[in-house]
Amino acid sequence: MFAQMMIPHHEQAVEMSTLAETRATDVEIVALAELIKGEQQPEIDSMTAWLQAWGSSVMDHDEAMAMGHGMQGMLSDAQIAELKAASGPQFDRLYATYMIAHHEGAIEMAKQVVESTNADVAALAKSIIAGQTGEIEQLKAFLEQ
């Protein structure tokens, strides 16, 4: 279930970070978005491979939500539209604000499986918690400038 939920969660972070390539103007946001995209796409690939090996389905965002399992920190369609419409400093601040909430949701999801008996799942959960906690600190520092 963790992998099935985290894949669409990560996919949204990748989508947000892809927007930064053409909309962000602050070098720190551009670099952080590149880092996030570079970290999360390989994690999506790993979780997809796990699900395939386990004979489980890979769900998209709508399928995961239809199962009734909330994904903490996910942006609404309106928030995604707002991010897509923004550029420059406005985009930078929205991206930072939304990515903080998005990462906080991923951390909460990861905490639920950090003690998993599956070593790969536990290791990924620990990595998500550590990496995204650091990125939240950077994003908060950016917003405080």
Automatic annotation (TrEMBL):
<protein>
    <submittedName>
        <fullName>Unannotated protein</fullName>
    </submittedName>
</protein>
<dbReference type="Pfam" id="PF03713">
    <property type="entry name" value="DUF305"/>
</dbReference>
<dbReference type="InterPro" id="IPR012347">
    <property type="entry name" value="Ferritin-like"/>
</dbReference>
<feature type="domain" description="DUF305">
    <location>
        <begin position="1"/>
        <end position="143"/>
    </location>
</feature>
<dbReference type="InterPro" id="IPR005183">
    <property type="entry name" value="DUF305_CopM-like"/>
</dbReference>
